[in-house]
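Dear Dr. H.,

I hope your travels went smoothly. While you were away I took the liberty of generating a structure for the chain from your last submission, since the lab meeting agenda had it listed for discussion. I wanted you to have the full record in hand beforehand rather than looking at slides cold. The sequence, exactly as received, is reproduced here:
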Amino acid sequence: MGMAIFKQSNGMYAVNIVASCGVLTPDQLAGLGKAARDCGVFRLKLTTRQTIVAVLDKEQIPRLVERLPELGLAVSPYGGAVRAVKACAGNAALCPRALGDALDLGIAIQEQYLGREVPKDVKIAVAGCPRGCTDPLCADFGIVARGAGTFDVFLGGRGGSAKPVHGQLLANRVAREDIFPLLNHVLERYTALAQPKERLSAVVARLGLDPFLPPPGLITADDAQETVDEEFLAFLGGKGSDQSG
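The corresponding predicted structure, in token form, is as follows:
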């Protein structure tokens, strides 16, 4: 596993900086801005993985990197590691369509799993409703809130490819606290079954879902009534009120 620092076409280097699923406090943002000025950063770029890329000269990289911990930030791990987690603003305080607390769950997953060693980079995405603003079906491990404190979990998606793959449903109506043992189980099975540097999606394509299914007792069955985004389901079924002829 290494750090996500890459040479750019213009000869400068990009340092990929991780925050809490893209959430920064005003002090963190101001502190990062000051550090960027002090280190001669050319540009700051928001990424699709809810990280921030700082583009700067190679000799300035150590100065910038050593400033990050005091801001509660870090350089993203890269290469055989669990990457930064994507999570939407889905919770009761922020998004009116949220069926579950995606943001806090995503932050908790990142705090526990960021940088964990795996055969090939693993991407995790959490969405607060079926609209999937964080592309959970294109993640190695995708989580979608269903309501009543439960989530559907999809496995084996891959978006960063000329041939994207949608994840398959691994488990439905999983309680929040059971997401963690399920993710542990998946990462352990992936590590045991993968060929060298084989993506999780490739392992699922090769072996199917069966080797990753949760064993009895790992997760708790939930019979609670789910909350449904009726408007969005109607849209998917071609029954939206604005549909015509």
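Two observations you may find useful: The chain has two domains: 2-78, 86-235. The first helix runs from residue 26 to 38.

With kind regards,
E. W.
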